[in-house]
Design a protein that fits this description.
Blueprint lengths: L1 H18 L10 H7 L15 H7 L3 E5 L3 E7 L5 E8 L5 E10 L2 H19 L3 E4 L2 E5 L5 E6 L6 E8 L1
Antiparallel strand pairs: 1-2, 2-3, 3-4, 4-8, 5-6, 6-7, 7-8
């Protein structure tokens, strides 16, 4: 009886483990994991419609700007590179958009980050639509879009990612 019970327990654990969604984020560089944080919900564990207070409480990055319609948090990746996490809110104080602006020191880092972001979003959401050579859009199954664009210019190297409905 004990052997049968142990056998049943073993297969129940294996079945449960097999049904657990696998994190694809763990396969990517630590800096990308630090920015994206989790695959739960839409953005860093938060959803469209979350309240201003919920975002303020759950977001652990350093806040650099705050108003009724926007919050900006900054994460430093190293001495030269950072990412601004931008949360926008509607008139009712509910999250209606999320963005990341990566500010990078050199072009090689930008190319590597862009490649990793494209791989991650394609693995998570499927093939993307090309708007132009520097602008891609992924569609989520939940009805929101993720748009990535290269906004670099003479002033600096930047990649912007926006989540919107």
């Amino acid at each position: 009886m004990k052997v049968l019970l142990a056998f049943f327990f073993f297969f129940a654990c294996v079945f449960s483990w097999a049904q657990t969604p696998k994190s694809i984020l763990k396969k990517y560089p630590k800096d990308l994991q630090k920015i994206l944080l989790t695959e739960e919900n839409v953005f860093r564990g938060l959803n469209f419609g979350d309240s201003w207070e919920t975002v303020r409480t759950k977001e652990k990055a350093r806040i650099s700007f705050e108003s009724d319609t926007m919050m900006i948090f900054t994460i430093f990746l190293d001495a030269d590179d950072s990412a601004d996490l931008i949360y926008t809110f509607d008139d009712e104080g509910k999250a209606d958009g999320f963005s990341i602006i990566f500010i990078l020191a050199d072009k090689e880092e930008e190319l590597l980050l862009r490649e990793n972001l494209m791989k991650f979003y394609t693995e998570k959401f499927g093939l993307y639509d090309i708007v132009n050579e520097e602008d891609e859009i992924w569609d989520s199954e939940k009805g929101y879009k993720i748009e990535m664009r290269d906004t670099s210019d003479e002033a600096g190297t930047e990649i912007e990612v926006a989540y919107y409905r």
